[in-house]
Every structure is written in structure tokens, then in C-alpha cells.
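HUMAN: Spend a minute on the protein record below and explain its fold to me.
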Amino acid sequence: MVDIKWATQQRLQYIEIMAFYTGVVTRSDVARAFDISDAAATKDLKLYGQLAPDNLIYKHGVFGFVPTEGFKAQYADLSPAVVLPMIAANLAVAQGPYGEEQIYSITVDSLPLPNRLPDAAVLAQIVRAIRNQKKLRVVYHSLSDSEKSPERIIEPHSLVNTGLRWHVRAYNNDTYDFRDFVLSRFVEADLLNEVAESNVEYDDDWVDVVTLQLTPHPKLDTKKRISLLIDYHGEEGVIELNVRRALIGYALQRLSVDTTSDHSMNPNAYQLIVMNRDEIEPFAGWAFH
């Protein structure tokens, strides 16, 4: 086993993640991600080629290295549970050299929620379609379209983390509109050699941002309402959030907002209500009772 410094290992991990998920890794990718010179990035790619000679092959058409059919990760954890948070946080690497040691001496834990994610190979095809603006043939099991064939053609443009699950925002060729697709419901995905006819600029509900106005539930006592306004940094009784129109329903769901017209839900479980309901509801009808 070659003794490799931790910093170099991080760059080797990044090389694997970029190659596997986006389909290509270039010298400029490595240089930009780690703020190093092109010469240093070239050295890292050469080292990776020596350590894992069967994983990458140089392709002149893209001026970079693409994964071979027999690609097997040697340094990175390619599981979606590890990679998706990295993409969301715009991080080049995930692991540190500290193991279980708490370098800040602060205990942090999270809820043990079910892993609602697709297979890594499926996610890689979706990511490549987004990056290269290509069409994608998928097998997707929808809860609402149970009678239809699970195979469809989509044109994805963005990933979405709602805090509860991951979605992909995409144009659906069958229904001629932009929709959200839950990542865990994709069982197959194949990148097509066809340029997407749509793009993010055509998705009005994604591009347009509205202000969601919330306020503490009127059935809470005064002390609790004041505490909630402090908690959410509300001003003059109003909590404002700028949200993409496509994500309004998920924001209401994540914040456990009482969306009934008569505010009839348990105020201790649903502590907020919507103030500008008439403006918001047309874009998130499914989230309103």
C-alpha cells in the first residue's frame, strides 16, 4: 500500500467522485476545487492513473478523464448518502483524518431517518444529465400515475433537498411540463445522446421567487407567539421567507405550517400559519387543506 498524505487522498477522492458522477474530471476541475496550480492538478491525475490504472481513460473530445466500464472506487465513498450532501454544501471532500475523535469537543447527532435514495449508478446518470443538459430515459414509479408505464423521458436541471427527501426538478416529455421527481423512486436511468430541449430558464416556478409570510398560530398564548417570533427572527409579527415557487409546498411541510383555512390543526404541533394564503396557494395547492 502506497503511503499517501491526507491532503493528496482528498484530491484523489474528488477525482473519483467527479469522474463517476459527472462522467468526466479535468485538470481545471481539480485545480479549481483545491485552489492549486494546473501543474499540481496534472500531478494528482497522473498519480491517480498510476494507483488505479484501470479506472480512468483520457478522452480528447472532453479534454479530460472519463471512467472506464470497470471503474471501481479506490479512495472515495460513492454512496448517494455521502455524495449528495457534499453536492448540496458545495464541498470537494467529505471525510477528515480525525475518525471518531471530536475535534471541537462538541457532540452533534441527527435523526435516524430512512435512507430514501437511489442506487449510486442511477444517481450518476441523473447528475450527468443535469451537468451536460441531456435527455434521460428513466424507469420511475410514481404514486399518482400508478396506471401509466413507469418508463418516461425527462430533462433534469436541478437537485432539491427538502430536508426530508431528495428530488430532481425536470421537464417531463410525457406531460409537457416541469415536475418534481423523488430520487428514491428511480430504479433505472440511462443518459441519452440527445440535447435537452428545455432548460432551467423555461421553468417559471423554479426561476420566480415569492415571499412566504408566516405568523405564529393564533390559538397559541401570547408568550408562545412572542417566543416563536424571536425563534424565527420575525419582525412586527411576520416571519418572511423568500422561496422558489416550486418549493413553497415543501417549505410549508418542513416548517409544519397549519395550512387549513380555519386554522383547525393542533397549534402545539403546527405552530405557524400562512398570512398571504391567496398569493401562495396557487403554487402549492397540494400542501393546503
